[in-house]
Design a protein that fits this description.
single chain; 62 residues; alpha+beta; two-stranded antiparallel ribbon; 1 helix; 2 strands; flat
Length: 62
């Protein structure tokens, strides 16, 4: 697990999360999104437009 996504010590509910409860929460969130017309965000990756060299990074114009 990436350290940025590790649970904080004060998040007691995330010490040993119950998979059934997580599954139910995901299901309920889906129902709420459907009910209120909220679409799930889609991720479209943007290409990196720079190149790094030992002297520094610069923007690449294609």
């Amino acid at each position: 697990m990436h350290p940025i996504h590790a649970p904080c010590p004060d998040m007691a509910g995330m010490v040993s999360p119950d998979p059934e409860k997580r599954q139910r929460a995901v299901f309920l969130l889906g129902k709420l999104r459907e009910k209120h017309g909220i679409r799930k965000r889609t991720y479209t990756p943007r290409p990196m437009n720079y190149k790094c060299t030992p002297t520094g990074c610069y923007e690449v114009n294609e």
